[in-house]
Amino acid sequence: MLDVSPPFSIQHTTFNINNLAFNITFGKMATINPSNPLIVQGDYTVLAEVDSPGFTAARNRLVRFAELIKSPEYIHTYRITPLSIWNACASGISKHEIGDALEEYSKYPVPEHVLAQIGDYISRYGRLKILKEEGRLILDAEDRRLAREIENDKTLRKLIDGNISPTRFIVPAVNRGRIKQALIKAGYPAEDMAGYTEGNPLLFTLRSPSLSGAPFELRSYQRQAADSFHAGGSPQGGSGVIVLPCGAGKTIVGISCMEKLQTSTLILTTGTTAVKQWKSELIDKTTLTEDQIGEYTGEKKEIRGATLSTYQIMTYRSKKDPDFKHLSLFEEQNFGLIIYDEVHMLPAPIFQITAGLQARRRLGLTATLVREDNREDDVFALIGPKKMDSPWKELESQGWIACAACCEIRIPLPEDLQVLYAVAERRKKFRIASENPRKIDIVRRLISNHEHHQILVIGLYLEQLRTISEEMNIPVITGKMSQTNRDDLYRRFRAGEIRCMAVSKVANFAIDLPDASVAIQISGTFGSRQEEAQRLGRILRPKPGENQAHFYTLVTKDTIEQDFALNRQLFLCEQGYAYEIRDEGIGSNFGHQFSDWA
Q1: Which of 172, 465, 469, 532 is the most buried (most CB within 10 A)?
Q2: What span, in angstroms and rounded, lies between the C-alpha atoms of 4 and 55?
Q3: Number of domains composing the chain
Q4: Partners of 583 in beta bridges
Q5: How far apart are CA 465 and CA 442, in angstroms?
Q6: pLDDT tens profile 568-584
Q7: The CATH number of the domain where 327 resides is what?
Q8: Measured between alpha carbons, how far is residue 510 from residues 115, 345, 447, 473, 539 in Å?
Q9: How far apart are the C-alpha atoms of 372 and 29, rounded to whole Å?
Q10: 161-187 pLDDT per residue, tens
Q11: Are residue 37 and residue 15 in the same domain, yes or no?
Q12: What interhelical angle do 426-434 and 415-423 show, nearest 10?
């Protein structure tokens, strides 16, 4: 027997007896399992070895309570955060399930303070509940100490209207969302059990096959997503976010949730083109008729059982009128469900109105919960917890989205622009680098190399796009183009009449171009990972045959654009994509390498 009592002080040692490894840390003995895939670190990150035999089983447990930070080829990194734990709590996962998963799959002993902190996060969820009793909303605190904290918090005190006992407070209905926002920022997320209004009925079924005659049935992960959101119609369901890659059928998930609830629905999305796509899918995949579907846009103002609108029209206000007059649409119909398409784009005024709509069911759909304004906690409080998050590479391996080869091509800045770049201020430097004229020749050669593919050239700067359009005789879509002309070009692209098309940022979101298999990104919005995800998503619809897509990013070498590109790469690496970097170089070497890129 090994004596570790004083005066001996063993800080850390490892030894083997009959090939069984032991770890002694501060006098504790615990088994080391070298074949396990996880390493739980003291900074609340978890490393997962992809090649480990237990990786898949460990990952399936881990994703339920930890956020994927990055997933390059060999080691994936997850982080345990308050939000990730509270999302797990909302899904019914217990402290013991989390602890058991970490200890079962970890190579080394799980740091005790990590387990203790997880326990603390879990203990905070549900200690406050929002209930509905006798027509009133009640905030119910677990104990008197927590109730005192609420009473002494200036922000929270303004949102309650007295108490009915030492631990129970009356919450005005209009403050239901705001108090949830305030509580999550205070570190005590409330469990909202007050239920929802049913809304006007909207009765329909899903078609099989679709109206167009094509086979149609829900994929397994789409069915799982809808079931997770609905939760059998219980108060635990009815609000939340589904995270799926572009091209994986988030629209179908939304339609499935509508079918489960059979209630009047308001669908908010990113633009008129997306409105038309939603309408087309509803007519094709369900028994809803055109008369039951309304468009509330700049062109039409229809309010029907299923009403489709855009964030732009909802947040429009004239210079003379400070009010958002179209926000009244939320109250124009007794909607039982509101769907927020591309919920990561939710503008601040919609957050504000959503805070007052907590009695209605709410579904958020997105490919990434990354927000440039860091308001993920507001999405949790006002839309609901994350109900499902399917890894991109997992759906790719199952053939539901295309395989994507990602390549960054670095191009020198011409000598005549180098002095101008050197003396420019930071924002101007970025534009000079982004509009590097040498990119045009690379675009031309890439288009030539992919002569049998449908290609999108995507950029930020309109003059750059128009130059490419003129030199290569391809159409260009910008925000200034009429919706009719846009829709006609999209239609011709889908029909194969147009092989290559240039698009501005108006095509970043919710544009269904299923045959596009090559994207050439010539300029972007600084280091936006959100934009990178959406642009890659334009080419991820599953393809017949090899199911292969190509994503090229053209970057000016040794400039500020290259620095921002590093941040954009991060999203792709987090999703598990290999990101190849090539130099254009000067001379014949570039020509020899070029044919390999396709």
Answers
A1: 532
A2: 35
A3: 5
A4: 410
A5: 14
A6: 777 777 677 777 889 87
A7: 3.40.50.300
A8: 41, 12, 24, 26, 12
A9: 45
A10: 989 999 999 999 999 999 999 999 999
A11: no
A12: 160
